[in-house]
Amino acid sequence: MSWTGGSFGERAQCVLAPNANMMTLDGTNTWVLREPGARRSVVIDPGPPDESHLDAVAELAGDVGVVLLTHHHLDHSEAARQFAERVGCGVRALDPEYRLGSEGLGGGDVVEVDGLEIRVVSTPGHTADSLSFVLPAEGAVLTGDTVLGRGTTVVAHPDGQLGAYLDSLDRLHGLAAAHEIGTIWPGHGPVIDDALGALDYYIAHRSERLQQVESALAGLGPEGLTAEELPRRVVEIVYADVDQVLWGAAELSVRAQLAYLAQR
Description:
The protein is α/β, with parallel strands linked by helices. It has seven helices and eleven strands.
């Protein structure tokens, strides 16, 4: 499936950053949002400091009211300050370290720019500072890395926590079930037109993975593995059919799963 970004609804355009790899899929999606007929835009996740990418975003965005970050990972945030200084606006993020200006950002906040309304939803789990952004006028949610356009995401232990992630999926699922969101505009990969179906899949997938990890632990039994060795052995069992290039990321998720199971 080829993904190149584009225009979505009446208010969104996606500029794909040229940083494709095994973890970022086709690259980072930088979103430019603007109310129809409005002067200023909102830019979400400027991405990496690639000049050609930032030029394309700046040309499309024009007068920018604010930059918002879904989370702190560099493929989303690294160019945020550079871009915001270039266009003369602030950066709002949950983590103070990534802000430019005095305004923070958190769940329950509403960002309004020239008639554009963005509702902030707290969705920790992939990282502790992960946020999602709902556009009521479009029935869409921008999920960063909480939900991807293709495949599933990593719970980046220890910053990411599985319990928090499951709660976040439930929170988004509740919005979809209530018909407040119908589409997902992710931080990587293509737009998802069936938000409820995607969230059903994500929740079922996490439950299945947990069961697989529990089965792997039972099968390993008293092997005498250290706490440092155990996650890798579980990855070798549970993710045996996954490209080994991704085993490092899978181990982060397994560590999060083991920590979650230890607390139950």
